[in-house]
Amino acid sequence: MQRIDVYPTHRYQNFLLRAGRPYPLGANFVPGGVNFAVFSRYATECTLILFEKGAKKPFGKIPFPTEFRIGHVFAMVVFDLDHENIEYGYQFDGPYKPHEGHHFQKAKTLLDPYAKAVSGRDVWGSMPEHGHQFQHRGLLVYDDFDWVHDRMLGIPAEDLVIYEMHVRGFTRHPSANVKYPGTFAAIREKIPYLKQLGINCVEFMPIHEFDELQNTFVNPETGEPLKNYWGYSTVGFFAPKAGYAATGRLGMQVDEFKALVKLLHQNGIEVILDVVFNHTGEGGNDDDYTFSFRGIDNKTYYMLRPDGRYYNFSGTGNTMNCNNPVVRGMVLDCLRYWVAEYHIDGFRFDLASILGRDTRGNPLSNPPLLEALAYDPILGTTKLIAEAWDAGGLYQVGSFPAYGRWSEWNGQYRDTLRRFLIGDMGQVGALAECIQGSPHLYLERGPTASVNFITAHDGFTLADLFAYNEKHNWANGENNRDGHTPNYSWNCGWEGPTTDPKINALRRQLMKNAAAILMVSQGVPMILMGDEVAHTRQGNNNAYCQDNELNWFNWNLLAENEDIFRFFKNCIAFRQAHPVLRSRTHFRNQDYVGSGYADISWHGVEAWNADWSYHSRTLAFLLCGQHARQGAVQDDYIYVAMNMHWESHPFELPNLPGDRRWYVFANTSMPSPEDVCEPGHELLLADQLSFLVGSRSVVILVGR
Amino acid sequence: MGDPMIMNVDIQQDEGIIIIRLSGELDGQTVPALQDKLLPLIVPGCKILLDMSNVHYMSSAGLRVLLLFYRRVDKENGRIVLTGLQEMLHDTMSITGFLDFFQTCDSVAEGIAALKQSRT
After folding, report:
1. Using CA atoms, how far apart are residues A227 and A246, in angstroms rounded to an integer?
2. Which residue is closest to A247 within chain B, CA to CA?
3. What predicted TM-score, i.e. pTM, was given to this entire model?
4. Mean pLDDT of chain A
5. Most A CBs within 10 Å, among B60, B75, B99, to test the A interface
6. How far is CA A554 from CA A175, A196, A470, in A?
7. What is the pLDDT of residue B120?
8. What is the ipTM of this complex?
């Protein structure tokens, strides 16, 4: 039987219409037409604006009849549209009273917050016609991707090794030698590299549509306008970035990104998206930047002071009103869409503490949005990772409302590791917590609540961490005022590049120390793209705006710094080979399987006697393999000695049970290739009683 | 180049293989007519060769109609081979995942041979 709602009931000019359904919001295909549904509480009228692709002037302006408005939603079906060649937007009428929070401008054509694809920045960096009033345009998208057998991988959190990647940066450098540099498509060609490295999860820096041209600063050295390169400034939360797709100019970015997710899954690699719900790309109080939310319903979407100006907890001028129920609903709809339609495995939430503030910015003890995300059925197995702080001073590492679901970027891990690695005193106590998955922060949540990292996109790269004492952000056009201090970095005696072989050798050794400790720490390790080949940003610790070699992965470094890559690769493989390094629960610091050894025990220059004093720069620990996975799995014993003192120290080795012997897996004081071996090929130690651990170095032994 | 709104379809039969030569552009404008012409050809056990040598552009709707053919042919336990895909089209299909579903050959002759090989 044919449905009766495939026939129009209304006619406006040449358009055939019917009352639409208010849910789902957005533009969705229905038999014979497209259902357009958009929310605005305070608008008095709404008009659907239709363009042919790329046209300056619309071919249709269809006001929503009064009877097509249900509650605060305008909903209308338009029949017989040539949906492939259409771009759409809306115009809203309503009060323009900024002091009351209203910014309606009837003549302004605005992007649908639910647009599933957005045109206007189809090819990365190409200059748009500034005469175009309507820069970011909604496209109609089929939700019909053929996933066949694909599903989210569901890799247990403790087994993850996350690789934080910028889509364009990964393959834009000419040395990448790919057909479509800087795109989702190009990543396909580099999957064998990711597998070789051994990671099993990529965390994409923002891939939601953003405007890379949105930056008013200029590089003072070159005079070039800088970009919004990283993309932490969203235009469309439901749309993949067209400029990241080789097929973006064909409007196929949705298919291209889905196909990439599918291929990554086929290769055993999960996909986490970095999502930025704390603010939007509409900037501060300047109406010129209005392209969507502000003109649709400013008072709902943004946190406003009583005088109508914006609260700024994001550091970028505006703050999304995340605990307004409508905005909360949009965030939920958005994440459900990415999970259901794109098979995304997890999300990392930028400045997530903002998501826990109420509509006036006060931190909530039981934030409805965070709770809703934690309990959402569609997000039921999705990994949720918080950057548990914001620019308004709320710092929640260890106290982020977790509901048994949320994990966190562990900023304390980063800072402690850095300080220990550069030889600061007073760190070994905190280091011991970090190595155990930070039970002092996550006692109830378990070690997987801790995403361990030493470097991330913000701040120095690993190579720069040991090459610069100070940030060098002059190229960002803000007189070096931008970017964070302190960095907890150390230049090893010379600021920046040097030909001094001793300094260069020490820097490499410190990088290896970092990789080694990261990979033997309980929790979820995360690596910054490029650190595995010692990528430098020349001391720039805030390279958000640099679309150039500062951010582009230089594939020539793979040969040049082969020893660093090899060290990372083998340390990751070592982690994956040893379940005792990937505990689901916290250590109990006792023997509960009858092995005669505690699950973890602490040592120092003397076995069984760690030096916890303030001046100590040495620590060693022993993991009992019989406690792996709470005794369910038999693993080797693993002993790690860390000496960040500038002198070598002999470390007395703890006795092994039975006829087990010590073998060396890694010794960062040795030149490559003696610094590390492939797991399973460790060399038997001649002296089973003591090991001379070199200055500023890490040694990893296996007892079997 | 012909009128971009026109998609020419030439259909021949050769020893039980339906050879369809498309020329023009495969997009939202041309897809409905093409669909009407081709869907009736899909019968149980059919062997279809779709020669794309003269297709210079394919939109999202074009990709979808190909996948629709594949799904319908597969449902009828038939087979479909694409031949003569130009580089740009091949790349587009590859990076959007659509190529995964298809056997492709460079030439019509190779396509026929491939379809014959599978005959039981």
Report:
1. 20
2. B92
3. 0.97
4. 96
5. B60
6. 6, 17, 24
7. 45
8. 0.95
